[in-house]
């Protein structure tokens, strides 16, 4: 039987009253208990998932990619999945009362909101086989999107960089800075592609941390209201230069094919598909660095089938499944042992595993350098206390940019 224990978050009374220095009074401090799953019991026979397309493959898309069928056979858990098209849709589905979902492949930009609302449970990593094979940064300093004050809210799925992608024929010389997409004197106005997400604010903040050090930006996800305003102002000035705000990576592929876009923010899956088609598209990490995405399998706090979800989390963390997911979805595996499997599958093209197409697979230093997506919160996470702008303020700022 599944054991559950609750840990009550202790919050000093003095912090509960009048401590919010930002405008996000709608983000109260969390005092609800945390549900922690510390035992795996018998299969309940069903598993209801929310996921992004490509994370739950049963061979119907391509017979060579099927990690659902073996899982069902080994665990007697029948998998049902509903796909979400965006972080916002996933957040809404998971926070709907009695949603019936057992878990999801949660992106870093909404993970903390789910944690703060206690919509997801923490997991004792000791019950997850393979936990010790997760790349060290994803269990340590670069795990703040799902590890909060020592509590582990899930297991890593895949991650990847948000790099600068460009058409080598059109963009010369090779760019070295994100300034090529932000500065008004860029030669490529009207042919720039940017992700249509509040997370683009973090990209702008990262650029400003180097371009305007007087702003004092040290963490692109912990912005004070003035720092958020500066980042938003940069994006508003950039807006006339942007030819495409993309939501799906397929949009960038079409734009680069047609020549409508020649430079911008991109993902590994788009780079791979364009290069496979012999398009002269390259990618690099600019001198200011880069943000990155990281998805985590999380279990719903009120899951009807928690044992099947825990079994799924363990299975998807195995090197074999991580290898399949990385090659199908387009990203880097969190289990370092999967990288060698990827190299074996690539054969004569094994060196690609060390390229940006696979997030420089297994490169701990590179992973540690990425500013992985994280939910902005009022609590800055440092000596500034509750002085930062939270997710609602970021969403409002992004709406202003897109108007």
Characterize the structure shown.
With 403 residues, the protein is of the alpha/beta class. The chain has two domains: 4-13 and 20-159 and 293-359, D-Maltodextrin-Binding Protein, domain 2; 163-289 and 377-402, D-Maltodextrin-Binding Protein, domain 2 (3-Layer(aba) Sandwich). The protein has 13 helices and 17 strands. The strands form four sheets. Strands 3, 4, 5, 9, 15, 16 and 17 form a seven-stranded mixed sheet that branches. A five-stranded mixed sheet has the order 12-11-13-10-14, with helices on one face. Strands 1-2-6 form a three-stranded mixed sheet, with no helix packed on it. A hairpin with a 2-residue loop joins β7 (147-148) and β8. The chain is globular, with a radius of gyration of 21 Å. Mean pLDDT is 92; it is low at 1-22.
- Helix content, binned percent: 25-40%
| Intertermini distance | 52 Å
Strand content: 15-25%
Low-confidence stretches: 1-22
Write the SSE topology:
Blueprint (H helix, E strand, L loop, with lengths): L3 E4 L26 E4 L8 E6 L16 H8 L2 E6 L3 H8 L8 E5 H9 L5 E2 L23 E2 L2 E2 L2 E7 L1 E5 L11 H4 L9 E4 L4 H12 L13 H14 L3 E5 L2 H10 L4 E4 L1 H9 L4 E4 L6 E9 L6 H11 L2 H12 L1 E2 L4 H9 L17 H6 L1 E2 L18 H12 L1
Parallel strand pairs: 2-6, 3-4, 3-5, 11-12, 11-13, 15-17
Antiparallel strand pairs: 1-2, 5-15, 7-8, 9-15, 9-16, 10-13, 10-14
Helix pairs in contact: 2-3, 5-6, 6-13, 7-8, 10-11
